[in-house]
Amino acid sequence: VITTRRSFVAKRVLIAAGTATPALAEQAGAPPGTLSLLHRPGVLVWTRPLPPGTLRTLLVTPEVYLHQRPCGRVVIGEDMGKGERPPDDTSPQACARIMAKAVRWLPALRGEVPERVTLGFRPYPADGLPIVGHLPNMHSAVYVCVVHSGITLAPALAPLVAAEVLSGKPCEEGLLDLYRPGRPAIGAGAAAAGAYDVQMDGVLGASADSEADVHSHKQAPSLCAAGARVGPARAPSPGAGLAHLQGLRHTSKL
């Protein structure tokens, strides 16, 4: 594993890199198109810093969702909708529409104008289900975990993923059987491109839930810019494990 700081030799690798997961998996030796993600960017509108307490909670409405950052800026995201508009529309008209919706739910924003607009990139497996498990035909050397709502699912996934990576074996009771890599629903060409579902096709986007300025994302960043590259996987020796993942078993409870 080659990072911007140093290189590591690992008997097993866990790839949990959001939208970068397919590209990293291919660098590790997975056939192109093994993992299909939908590219679902979301427009985020940022206000200037506002007084603390302007918004005291996460506000989720049928039209927009809002929260106030520690810096005072209120961040406004629009509902992903049903495909009636482009998912990456950062035009002044789009921002004005989002602000108008936000004002209806938070009158304190009346008269405010966007300070900046960003795109958030989310990892969406092509069939909508998590992708969790060892890559097929990789000698249990490469394990992937890519989901949407990763924070929500982490308490349930963390102990299961840790157990499988450490043992190299499937978890008991087949709890993750529906979510394995290699299933046809996430293979090459599985995703139908649409207004809100533009398939990644192996292109590396920003990391999951990143707040990347739209002006800096006209081209996808390279893997070096993302900070890591993975070489071809080799079969691990018997009994090899990742002891440092053991702690994941105790990080959270449902």
Short account of what is shown:
By secondary structure, the protein is an alpha+beta fold. It has helices spanning 21-27, 92-105, 150-167, 223-226; strands spanning 2-3, 13-15, 37-49, 59-60, 64-68, 73-78, 116-125, 131-134, 142-146, 198-199, 212-213, 228-229. It is elongated, with a radius of gyration of 20 Å.
Cα Rg: 20 Å
- The helical percent reads 10-25%
Q: What is the count of β-strands?
A: 12
Mean residue pLDDT: 74
Q: Helix segment count?
A: 4
Distance between the termini: 33 Å
Helix/strand order: EEHEEEEHEEEHEEHE
Question: Could you give a short account of the major beta sheet?
Answer: 7 strands, antiparallel
Alpha-beta content class: alpha+beta
> Which word captures the global form?
elongated
Low-confidence stretches: 192-254
Which band does the percent of strand residues land in? 15-25%
Structure description:
By secondary structure, the protein is α+β, with helices and mostly antiparallel strands. Helices cover 17% and strands 22% of the residues. It contains 4 helices and 12 strands, in the order ββαββββαβββαββαβ. Strands 3, 4, 5, 6, 7, 10 and 11 form a 7-stranded antiparallel beta sheet that branches. Strands 2-9-8 form a 3-stranded mixed beta sheet, with helices on both faces. It has a two-stranded antiparallel sheet with strand order 1-12. A hairpin with a 4-residue loop joins β5 (64-68) and β6 (73-78). The longest helix has 18 residues, at 150-167. The two termini are 33 Å apart. Mean pLDDT is 74; it is low at 192-254.
